[in-house]
Amino acid sequence: MSKAVLYDATKCIGCRACQVACKQWNELPTEATINRGTYENPPQLSAYTFTKIRFNEVDDDDGKFHFVFTKLQCMHCEHPACVTACPVGALQKTPDGPVVYDDNKCFGCRYCMVACPFGIPNFEWDKPLPWIRKCTFCADRQGGGLEPACVTTCPTGALKFGDREELIIEARERITASSDKYVNHIYGEKEVGGTSWLYLSPVPFEKLGLPTLGSEPVTVDAERAMGAVPPVLFGAAAVMAGAYWVIKRRDRMSQERADKEERKEVTK
Amino acid sequence: MIQKKRSFPVGTSILSVLVILGLVTVIVRYLNGLGAISNLSDGRAWGLWISFDLYCGVALAAGGFTLAGAVYIFNLKKYHPVVRPAILTAFLGYTLVILALLVDLGQPWYIWHAIIYWNIHSPLFEVAVCVMAYTTVLALEFSPAVFEGLSKSNFPVIRRFNWHVPIRIIRAIQIPLVIAGVVLSTLHQSSLGSMLLMMPETLHALWYTPILPILFLISAVAVGPAMVIFESTLSTRAFGHKLDLDVLSGLARAIPYILGLYLLLKVIDLMAVGEIGLIFLAYPQNMLWWGEIIVGVILPIILFSMPGVRQNRNAVFWSSVLVIIGLVLNRFNVSMLALGMRPGTIYFPHWMELAISVGLVADALLVILLAHRLLPIVSHGEAIEGSS
Ligand code: SF4
Ligand code: SF4
């Protein structure tokens, strides 16, 4: 059964301990940023920041101001666009849930970055030998029976690691238990065919800055087109060979006819 | 090849400077990373190189397979004189694509990974494999010209080698080669469209359609003859061997049919999903859509349908230019302008990005100039009517 994490935005206090834990576990360097008048930092995910907390400023029904937070990282999709996109299979979805990256295969085409509907894989633009970097779902820790570093460090229980099916059930229970607290939607249950990261939120998900996506995997059209490749290959080859043969024969026959006529003319 | 030295439309020295500038930029890239020479970012990971060098480059090289198919498979002998130049430009076009990728890829020294690690679900995998295979096919298709050139070389040592053996071998496999070329082209021209099918959320609805691969193929087939008209007119001006007007207008006559089919499919597809209204409503993207359709499809259909235009070298040339511009617009639209970026990103190509692309084109032009001086390009002298 594949693993997942449930992120409950009503429990998140924006302490960013997960951000720090992620940097530590993955030995990621700090980034120099400028003060933009917000606690949110760095401004976006990058090759050196696999996860971050987004600070959303939301007014409630009474016009009162609230912070609502979003944890951003790779969603570890069930039908990952990045995996289908990668020409060399450097990205793989493991049965346990993580979408993992193999820098022994990647050649840096960046198709994964363009294809990902969540805008997650990032690139080491400043390096002469650049790789793609993104959240690993701590596949290495999971292999050793540990939770992802961000989950372990979360002080409020906003992050919960477990089996995907069970977490979906739990999320639904939380919604029914306090339906005034949550919007009635588990983000990630259906989005682009489902993801390993699931979100609960007190406000509509657009306000969390998460993209509004359909439930169909984004890979279907491309995969259907690729399925047509073998028939097109053999079909085109057969049509071309056939056309060549037919036209050659027709030309030869008309040539022969012309020759015959000529001979007739001569003998006359 | 005995040919008088002529003044070329673009000075060889200017071209050389551009090539050198491109090379310097490449060195900067390998020392300081892609960020140093480009405005690419995580939000816009593909830019000018993918839109121009890959998307336009591959489509504009379609003259190679369309003409080779027409002449060798469909036996339209009339176009024989333009096959060789078309194959040469196609070969150079693909070489350019590969060279551009060597700059664009993060780890170009692993480009061969596409051959050993297969992801058969990835459209880009198919493009990569087909481009490599097709470049080889084009090289083989063109090789007789090189062997002929070598056999007439000024150096006796080179001349003495029995060049007729390889020529005979290529001749023997010519038809399979041409068929392979057509098949490979069909596959990767369309797969460039399939690549965009992965972005239903980010590619604008005016362009996103599951039949994108088919549209890509048809537009490539349409631009093939237009490119051949374009190149041969230019090389007429530069090198002086004039092509029969009959050949040009024959090519021109085919274009409206192909473009007509293309337009029909595009419009029907939008109507089928009930999105035809977008061509009026989706401002500003609809302007881009109308731009490519009017310039590259509607105008050429009208122009090429007029016998008066087809009988006039200049008119044929400029109408072909329209087809080419329209195709370039289309490829830029789908791969850059109508393709959404991550929020908060802006992109405009860095001058060094331009320097690379321009340098590569200059490269190709230099090779063409050289080839026309050294090799029998206009095949078997059939087309040489003497200079005018
Ligand atoms: S969120 Fe993006 S990078 Fe992560 S698995 Fe899904 S498609 Fe891949
Ligand atoms: S950049 Fe690397 S991981 Fe991403 S699609 Fe290309 S080869 Fe695959």
Low-confidence stretches of chain A: none
Helix percentage range of chain A: 25-40%
Number of helices of chain B: 17
State the strand order across the main sheet of chain A: 8-1-9
The unreliable regions of chain B are 379-388
Q: Report the sheet-strand fraction of chain A.
A: 15-25%
Give a structural overview.
The complex is a heterodimer of chains A (268) and B (388). Chain A is of the alpha+beta class and 268 residues long. Chain A is 34% helix and 15% strand. Chain A contains eight helices and nine strands. In chain A, the strands form four sheets. A three-stranded mixed beta sheet of chain A has the order 8-1-9. Chain A has a two-stranded antiparallel sheet with strand order 2-3. In chain A, a hairpin with a 5-residue loop joins β4 and β5. The N and C termini of chain A lie far apart (90 Å). The mean pLDDT of chain A is 93. Chain B has 388 residues and is an all-alpha fold. Chain B has two domains: 51 residues, no CATH class; 302 residues, Formate dehydrogenase/DMSO reductase fold. Chain B has 17 helices and no strands. The longest helix of chain B has 29 residues. At the A-B interface, α2, α3, β6, α7 and α8 of A face α1, α2, α4, α7 and α10 of B. One iron/sulfur cluster binds next to α2 of chain A.
Question: What are the salient characteristics of this protein?
Answer:
heterodimer, A: alpha+beta, Alpha-Beta Plaits, 2 domains, three-stranded mixed beta sheet, two-stranded antiparallel ribbon, 9 strands, 15% strand, B: 388 residues, mainly alpha, Formate dehydrogenase/DMSO reductase fold, 17 helices, binds iron/sulfur cluster
Produce a short descriptive summary.
The complex is a heterodimer of chains A (268) and B (388). By secondary structure, chain A is of the alpha+beta class. Chain A has 8 helices and 9 strands.
